[in-house]
Amino acid sequence: MDIISIYAITAGGVFVALFLISILPYLYQLAKSLELYISRYLIFPFFLRRHRFVGPWTRGAVLIHLLYTGVNLFCLCFGVSSPTEFADRSGTLAVVNMVASYTAGHVSFYSDILSISRHTCLQIHRGTAWMVSGLLVLHVVLISTIQSSFSLDRTSNLFALIGAGCVVGLTLFTLPYIRRHIFEVFLRTHQRHIPSGNRLSKICIITTFVLLSIALLLQLGFLIYRNRIFSLRGWPRARVSCNRPRIEGENDSNVIIQVRVALTRPVRIKAGQYINLWIPSVTWWSWTQMHPFMVTSWSHSCQETLDILIQPRRGFSRELLKQARSAQEGSASLRAFIIGPHGRSENVDRYESVMFVASGFGITAAIPYLKKLVYSYNTSASRTRRVHLVWEVKTLDIAIAVQGTLNSLLEDDVLKKRYILTISIHVKSGQIIGDVMKFGNHDRAVVYNGHANYDQILHAEMSGELIKRLPNAKEEKGESLVMVAASSRVRDQIRLVLQDYVHQKAKMVILEYQP
Ligand SMILES: Cc1cc2nc3c(=O)[nH]c(=O)nc-3n(C[C@H](O)[C@H](O)[C@H](O)COP(=O)(O)OP(=O)(O)OC[C@H]3O[C@@H](n4cnc5c(N)ncnc54)[C@H](O)[C@@H]3O)c2cc1C
Questions:
Q1: Pick from 407, 461, 404, 399: nearest CA to 425
Q2: Is there an atom of ligand 1 within 6 Å of 361 CB?
Q3: Ligand 1 contacts CB of residue 288 (under 6 A)
Q4: Is the bond preceding 515 in cis, omega lying within 30 degrees of 0?
Q5: What is the residue with the minimal CA distance to atom 13 of ligand 1?
Q6: Which parts of 191-290 are beta strand (E)?
Q7: N or C: which end of the chain has fewer CB within 10 A?
Q8: pLDDT per residue over 251-278, tens digit each?
Q9: What is the C-alpha end-to-end distance of the chain, expressed in Å?
């Protein structure tokens, strides 16, 4: 590209940017007025329900994927004059698509930069990965049929084969860590494979490397800054304990690992945000792992310690549990580092009613929001007049472990003898005697036997009739928010029920952590 073209494109870009900025308020207004229709006809309804291997796909997701595929097909086919050009285009398009996915490194960092949720970011990543794989397979098949002989003595062929091997490896290895590294190998080998005439691919690969390097350096910088790595005052430490000792013959899935990280640099964490936790000394392999966890402690100012609740699984978390149990004083103290906070925080204060639907450990995503809502109500900083937590658990173990936190929330929530918080815990049938039981000393926390009836609960919440209103005052019902951190079964159910209430100012938010 000559210097005049670069100037023309830059100047044009500046004018387009200025124009877009000037029409931004109108675009916002337009988006606001279309929001209801988009939610009702595209975001909520399923195109394909959840099945064992596919789904669920919403209409909106299908439309976006079709659009994305259509644009790529157009770029692939428009004005192609020979099979060789078609093959070259498929390779170049694959590289162009890769830029979108691999410039920011870690998914948490990527979603923060784009201000989208981790969930959306993973969907974008998955979509582009499928597109890249499809285009590459096409590229390899076409090249091997067009070329009369595919000699591995040619460096470009050899690197093409390594690149294709990486794609096969990508399909075989599902671990995100390996997946990312396989793609990096792929990028490097493809750089060697790209013919010298293909400038666009070269620009894309160089751009990816430059942006990826910047992103990795920034992440390293954040890690050093956040944990004061070079400070003489020591590094952050995590105190790890669990709620009960090992019981022979019982599995540990209902045990809770409690972690309190004492930071060296206080940090402000908004409700609903998570951190990536790095505890290098848990096992000999754990120095390579970072795990995301919701922060359950919340404060309107900076926090010096962070509380995390962890469910023991098979890997890092199980080893952490072993460390907690083997500690002499009942808790282990380990060197720990954090990166973050990451993730979006919803502005819950503007809604008249907020409902949380959680299952099992999904409660970790709801707790900080509950703390924030009670604080905002007590300081008259919110419009919220009703908060309902509906929590499904298999056994009461986890509920008992967080009982202290829930009780203190209920105790804090008594401004002028009025309150906003109600808690309904639904426990698997047979775990309690009778159908209903009080939870703790508060009438506002109740345990029910069996699954929650979301149809009924949402109908009552969305009608607004559970909010006390002034008699004879004609008050319009405010906006309602339903936040979900639950199993896929519950999520799908909520989505189905809630689509009937979109016109009643109801919004659904999928929280960053889904158990
Ligand atoms: C944003 C977010 C917040 C989370 N908050 C909590 C929380 O507050 N409490 C809690 O108990 N769990 C939380 N999790 C889940 C938690 O990160 C995983 O359970 C944990 O990483 C499991 O580690 P493991 O080696 O023991 O897992 P394994 O037994 O090896 O795997 C169990 C499951 O955890 C997933 N997993 C493993 N490693 C990671 C990783 N590095 N990143 C993401 N998922 C992984 C695997 O896909 C698998 O489904 C959260 C996950 C996310 C994405």
A1: 399
A2: yes
A3: no
A4: no
A5: 293
A6: 237-242, 257-267, 274-278
A7: N
A8: 777 788 999 999 999 999 999 999 999 9
A9: 50
